[in-house]
C-alpha cells in the first residue's frame, strides 16, 4: 500500500514526524519554550533561532515542537473518547431499534443541530478555559457524528445471517452486540476517526485562537497563531505554528483517505 498510494505514505510520514518530535521535544528543542528574553523580541529567523522569536523573545521553533504535545494530545484523545462513546451509542440504537432508537438518535440530532464551534465555545465558556475543559467540549460536539455513522452500518449488519444464527442459538443481546455487531461495523468508524484527528486539531486550535484553550504561557499551536495575529509584518510569529497545524491536518486526512481506499471492497483490488 505504501508504494501504490503515495498520499497515504506522505500522510504517515508527516504524522509520524510530528508525533516523534512531540515525544523527543526536550532533546531537540534548543531553548526552553516558556523562558522570556525581551532583548530578543520579534527577531527574524536566523541561525540562532531558525523560526525566529515571538513578542516575548521566546524561541518559536522550541514552542512549535513542544506545542505538538498539546495539540496532538487534544486531537487524538478527543477522537478516541468521542469515537468510543459514539460507537457504543450508535450500535445500541441501531441494534435495539424501535422507540429506543428514536429517542437515542433524537438526542444526538439535538446536539448536531447546533453549529459545532459555537456549541464548543459555549461549553468551554461555561466550564472555564483549560485543556481538560476544551477537550471535554470537543468530545460533546464530536460523538454524535460517530453515533450516526455506526447506527447506519449496524442497521445493515444486524440483518446478516451470522447475527440471526447467534440469536437463534440463544446468545444474549450484549454478547451479540460485542461479538458480532460492533466488530463487523467498526471499519467505517475507524476511517472516520483517522480523518477526524485533523479536524479536531483544527477545532482545538480554533478554540485556543479564540482564547478558550490552554492558559498562557503554554506553547500550543492555536494560541501561538492567535498571539501572532497582531504582528502581520512578522510572518514567522503566526506562520510557523499555522504551518504545523496545516501539515498535521493534511497528513491525517491523507491517512484517512488511504484507509478508506484500502478497506473499501470496491477499491481494495488496487492494493
From TrEMBL:
<comment type="similarity">
    <text>Belongs to the binding-protein-dependent transport system permease family.</text>
</comment>
<keyword id="KW-0813">Transport</keyword>
<protein>
    <submittedName>
        <fullName>ABC transporter permease</fullName>
    </submittedName>
</protein>
<keyword id="KW-1133">Transmembrane helix</keyword>
<feature type="transmembrane region" description="Helical">
    <location>
        <begin position="72"/>
        <end position="97"/>
    </location>
</feature>
<dbReference type="Pfam" id="PF00528">
    <property type="entry name" value="BPD_transp_1"/>
</dbReference>
<feature type="transmembrane region" description="Helical">
    <location>
        <begin position="117"/>
        <end position="143"/>
    </location>
</feature>
<dbReference type="Pfam" id="PF12911">
    <property type="entry name" value="OppC_N"/>
</dbReference>
<feature type="domain" description="ABC transmembrane type-1">
    <location>
        <begin position="68"/>
        <end position="256"/>
    </location>
</feature>
<dbReference type="InterPro" id="IPR035906">
    <property type="entry name" value="MetI-like_sf"/>
</dbReference>
<feature type="transmembrane region" description="Helical">
    <location>
        <begin position="235"/>
        <end position="256"/>
    </location>
</feature>
<feature type="transmembrane region" description="Helical">
    <location>
        <begin position="6"/>
        <end position="29"/>
    </location>
</feature>
<keyword id="KW-0472">Membrane</keyword>
<keyword id="KW-1003">Cell membrane</keyword>
<dbReference type="InterPro" id="IPR025966">
    <property type="entry name" value="OppC_N"/>
</dbReference>
<keyword id="KW-0812">Transmembrane</keyword>
<dbReference type="InterPro" id="IPR050366">
    <property type="entry name" value="BP-dependent_transpt_permease"/>
</dbReference>
<dbReference type="InterPro" id="IPR000515">
    <property type="entry name" value="MetI-like"/>
</dbReference>
Amino acid at each position: 500500500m505504501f508504494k501504490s498510494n503515495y498520499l497515504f505514505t506522505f500522510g504517515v510520514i508527516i504524522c509520524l514526524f510530528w508525533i516523534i518530535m512531540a515525544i523527543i521535544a526536550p532533546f531537540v528543542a534548543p531553548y526552553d519554550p516558556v523562558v522570556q528574553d525581551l532583548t530578543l523580541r520579534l527577531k527574524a529567523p536566523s541561525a540562532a533561532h531558525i523560526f525566529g522569536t515571538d513578542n516575548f523573545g521566546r524561541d518559536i521553533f522550541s514552542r512549535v515542537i513542544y506545542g505538538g504535545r498539546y495539540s496532538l494530545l487534544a486531537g487524538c484523545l478527543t477522537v478516541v473518547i468521542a469515537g468510543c462513546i459514539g460507537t457504543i451509542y450508535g450500535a445500541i440504537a441501531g441494534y435495539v431499534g424501535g422507540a429506543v432508537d428514536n429517542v437515542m438518535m433524537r438526542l444526538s440530532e439535538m446536539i448536531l443541530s447546533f453549529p459545532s464551534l459555537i456549541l464548543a465555545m459555549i461549553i468551554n465558556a461555561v466550564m472555564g478555559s483549560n485543556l481538560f475543559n476544551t477537550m471535554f467540549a470537543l468530545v460533546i460536539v464530536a460523538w454524535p457524528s460517530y453515533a450516526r455513522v455506526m447506527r447506519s452500518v449496524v442497521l445493515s449488519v444486524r440483518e446478516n445471517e451470522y447475527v440471526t444464527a447467534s440469536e437463534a442459538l440463544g446468545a444474549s443481546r450484549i454478547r451479540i452486540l460485542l461479538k458480532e455487531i460492533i466488530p463487523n461495523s467498526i471499519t467505517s468508524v475507524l476511517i472516520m476517526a483517522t480523518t477526524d484527528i485533523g479536524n479536531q486539531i483544527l477545532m482545538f486550535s480554533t478554540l485556543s485562537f479564540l482564547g478558550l484553550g490552554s492558559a498562557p504561557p503554554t506553547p500550543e499551536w492555536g494560541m501561538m497563531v492567535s498571539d501572532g495575529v497582531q504582528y502581520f509584518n512578522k510572518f514567522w510569529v503566526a506562520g510557523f505554528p499555522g504551518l504545523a497545524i496545516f501539515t498535521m491536518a493534511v497528513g491525517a486526512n491523507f491517512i484517512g483517505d488511504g484507509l478508506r481506499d484500502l478497506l473499501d471492497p470496491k477499491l481494495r483490488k488496487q492494493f
